[in-house]
Amino acid sequence: MSYLFLPEGLLRGRSAAQVLARNDLAGGSVWLEWLRILTLNLGVMLSIIIAPNILRTPGDFPLGYITVCVQAAAFGITLGTDSFTLSLGGKLPPSLSILESTGLYEIAAYVLAATATLCKC
Question: Which of 27, 48, 63, 79 gives the lowest tally of CB atoms within 10 Å of its CB?
Answer without folding.
Answer: 27
